[in-house]
Amino acid sequence: MIPLQQPRQNPLGYKSIPSLLRGFAIPSIIAMLVSSLYNIVDQIFIGQGVGYLGNAATTIAFPIVTIILAVGTTIGAGGSAYAAIKLGEKRNEEAELTLGNAFLLLSIIGIIMTVIGLLAIDPLLHLFGATAKTWDYAKTYTAVLIVGTTFNLLGIGLSNLVRTDGNPKLAMYAMLVGAILNTFLDPLYIFVFHWGVFGAALATITSQIISTVILTYYFIKKGQMRLRKETLRLDPFICKRILGLGFSSGVTQMAGTILQITMNNMLITQGNASIYGGDIALSAMGIVTKISMILTSICIGISIGSQPIIGFNRGAKAFHRVKRTSMMSIGIAGTVST
Fold first, then answer.
1. Do the beta carbons of residue 295 and residue 338 sit within 8 Å?
2. Using CA atoms, how far apart are residues 75 and 115, in angstroms rounded to an integer?
3. CB-hemisphere CA count at 13 Å for 315?
4. Longest C-alpha distance within the chain, in Å?
5. What's the rounded Cα separation, in Å, for the pair 226 and 4?
6. What pLDDT is stored for residue 5 in this prediction?
7. CA nearest to 226, candidates 237, 218, 234
8. What burial class does residue 236 get, using C-beta atoms within 10 Å of its C-beta: 0-12 exposed, 13-18 middle, 19+ buried?
9. pLDDT in tens, 38-71
10. Sign of CA dihedral 44, 71, 257, 170
C-alpha cells in the first residue's frame, strides 16, 4: 500500500461548472499566452542581436519544438486524464501511480530523444530545410534545444498533471517565472556575452529547467498526488492507458510538425525563386508563426483548463457535469474563434 495524505474533497466534483472553468481555464490561457509572448521575445532579441539568419534558424529548429510538444502532450494529457478519472473514482493510490508512471515515461523518453537527436542532428536539419547560410546558426540552436529535451518534456507533462491535482495557478506561475527569467537572460546572453543564437537557446532551456524544478518540487512536497519512491515504477497497464488517452493530442501536434517541415522546404524553394531568397522567407515565417500562436493560445487554454474537470467527473460518473463542461468549453472557444 502506498501511504497517502488524508484525501480532501476535490472541488472538481462539487463546485459549479462556470466557476471551475474560470478557475482552471483562465490560468491556462494566461500560461499559453505567456509561452507565446516569450517565443516572440526570443524572435525580437535574436533579430536585433543576430539578424534575419538567426530568426530563420529558429524556424528551422521549430519542428524539434513541436515534436517535443507532441510527446509531452501525449504523456501529459493522457496522464492528466487518467489521473483525473482515478481521482473521481476515489482511487487516489492509482492516481499517484499514474503521476509516477508519467514522470518516468517523460524522463526515459526525454533521454532517448536527446541521444537520438544529437546523433541525427545533421540529417534532421536537412529534413527541416536548413540552407548553407543558416546551417551553423540552425545547428547551434537546435543542438541546445535537444540537450534540454528531458526538462522540456517534464515541464509540459507536469503542468498538465498539476492542473488535475487542483492547482492550475501553479502551472501558470511556473510558466511566468520561466518567461520572466528568459526575458532577462536573452539580452544578457546575446548582447552582453555575445553568445548569439547559442545564448538565445540557452536562455530558453534554462527557463524550462526552472519551471520544471518548481513543478517537480510541488509534487514531491505539496501535492495531493505525490511523487514517491513507491510510485516510480513502470506499470504496463497504466502506461498503456496514459498513451491511449493522450494519443489524439499527440497526433494533432505531430500533424503540425509535418506541416511545419513541409512549409519550411516550400519556403526555401519558393523563396529562392523570388527576389528575396529562401532564408528571408524562413525568417518571415518564423515571426508569423510566433504571432499566430497568440491567437490560438486562448482556445488551447480553454481546452487544457476543461480537461481535469471532464476527467474527474467522468471518473465520478457525474456525466451531466461532463456534458455541461464540454458544451460550455466548445461554446466559449467557438465564440472566441469567431
1. no
2. 20
3. 24
4. 69
5. 8
6. 46
7. 218
8. exposed
9. 778 888 899 899 998 998 999 899 899 899 999 9
10. negative
pLDDT of residue 8: 56
Q: Are 10 and 321 in contact (CB under 8 A)?
A: no
Report the distance separating Cα 208 and Cα 196, nearest Å: 19
Q: Which residue has the cell 548569439?
A: 196
pLDDT tens for 13-22 read 888 999 999 9
Per-residue confidence band for 4, with pLDDT thresholds at 50, 70 and 90: very low
Side-chain half-sphere CA neighbours of 180 within 13 A: 7
Q: Which grid coordinates are listed for 279?
A: 532564408
SS3 state at 158:
helix
Place of cell 533521454: 111
Q: pLDDT tens, 192-218?
A: 999 999 999 999 999 999 999 999 999
Alpha helices in the chain (DSSP H): 17-49, 52-88, 92-119, 121-128, 135-147, 149-164, 168-187, 196-221, 236-272, 278-315, 319-337
Residue-wise pLDDT for 64-119, tens only, equals 989 999 999 999 999 999 999 999 999 999 999 999 999 999 999 999 999 999 99
Cα gap 40→59, rounded to integer Å: 12
The answer to whether the beta carbons of residues 211 and 162 sit under 8 Å apart is no
Give me the amino acid identity at 133.
K
What is the spatial distance between Cα 56 and Cα 287, in angstroms, rounded to a whole number?
9
Q: What dihedral angle (degrees, nearest 10) is formed by the CA atoms of 251, 204, 167, 158?
A: 50
| CB atoms inside a 10 Å sphere around CB 252 | 12
Give pTM, 2 decimals.
0.88
